[in-house]
Amino acid sequence: MRIKLDRTMCDGFGICAKHAPEYFSLDDWGYAVLVGDGNVPEQDRDAVMRALLDCPVHAIMEISERRPEPPPPPPPTDEDPAARLNVDDNEAEWGFTR
Fold first, then answer.
1. Contacts of 94 (CB under 8 A, 6+ apart)
2. What cofactor(s) does the depicted protein rely on (predicted)?
């Protein structure tokens, strides 16, 4: 598991430091600071997930290793796209004349 802390969103509730003090500490003003590089081993996952879920401003995010699949390419067609245009209806609307 890998996490990220957005300090600009933090409002200083300190819930994260309460649930997972090994991964979150509070600065002098009470705002959260991520301890370490954000990599969380499996044995600490529950505590960090509790901190993530309990954060009232959602300043903690889980970084996913998965990347979205690219959309499939459109099927090849020999059809002319201009053949499907309905120009007669558009002429009056847009003020075009032939």
1. none
2. [3Fe-4S] cluster
Report residue 84's pLDDT band, with 50, 70 and 90 as the boundaries.
low
Cβ–Cβ < 8 Å for 40, 49: no
pTM: 0.62
Tens digits of residue pLDDT in 67-83: 778 888 877 777 776 66
User: Could you count the other beta carbons within 10 Å of the beta carbon of residue 10?
Assistant: 22
Nearest to 7 by CA among 19, 18, 22, 29: 29
Name the 3-class secondary structure at 77.
coil
Residue closest to 24 by CA, chosen among 46, 4, 1: 4
